[in-house]
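pinging the channel bc i need a second pair of eyes. not urgent but kinda urgent?? the chain im working w is below, pasted from the shared doc
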Amino acid sequence: MDLYGVAPFGQVRWACDETAVAILDQTRLPNEVVELTLESIDSVEEAIKSLRVRGAPLIGITGAMGIAALANRAAREGLAGSRFRELVVGWADRLAAARPTAVNLAWGINRLRRVLETNPGGSAELGRALVEEANRVLLEDAQMCRAIGEHGVELLGPRDSVLTHCNAGSLATGGIGTALAPVYVGHERGLELHVYADETRPLLQGSRITAWELQRANVNVTVLTDAMAGALMSSDPPNVVFVGSDRIAANGDVANKIGTYGLAVLARYHGIPFYVLAPTSTIDTDTPDGGHIPIEFRNADEVRCGFGKSTAPPDIPVWAPAFDVTPADLITGIITEHGICVPPYSESLSHLIRSTDE
């Protein structure tokens, strides 16, 4: 799958006859396009933790595909019985803890757990069933992205500008993205859209990844540092803010890449609609509000010398959460593959989940 020329191999794919997974190493962007083959649980875990593969939907897909590929390999190598099942469960437990904030990772892995729980077959049959389930996770995510784009594009005019944060495009999902999905759909329809991409400190996912993929898709894009968003809103305000999410609590509070909360406050002050775009798999009804969302903290050196050059004293303390929580009352709407949820989110999200479970 080659989405908008983003990569010659797509975001993630099977390798080695479905006994390994190949990914685009996003830490090398925008200077190099490098594919890595993940052939062990160590390499899958490292790729997820180090952000070689990133974006809540995509790490869920990669976790599922990684476990399925390794299980398929173990079965072909003759591992069987309870030892096979114990090994796969151990892999699932390990990867589920790799990135604690993004609920999609556990969601994708739990899809495979259910296969293990309900399929009584031997290791060869289970290996095949796990690969098939991981394929469904990938396909469903691509379909969800397209549906999010179709709903979100209805909010855009023919020459609108969109401000976004971090990367919630095709390189964060199995399809055309979440926050960027309406932009891609609008581009297909001939809308002359302009995207402003926050640089997204400290790891620059906006400038390194969002700008890179939009430029390759021939979408008009401008990069700004995070601290410039307020000035942009006061001088040449965008029509809308679109961001993704790593977890949405039952009350509509949203965890997303650090800096999203400040952007929502600025958007409210300047009267700019602020939308969160995410699949229903990102909604965690077991988490009552944002205060209960676990927030991952990153290595301090990502701030002190993130790209090899020191930008702070080497021993200076650093406070480095990877995510912040945007309160529900700052969010205009939450766009999923099933449509747009509006406040009160405790009611609209609950209704959405009930309707999709029926």
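so The two ends are 32 Å apart (CA to CA). and Confidence is low (pLDDT under 50) at residues 1-5. — does that match what u expected or am i reading it wrong
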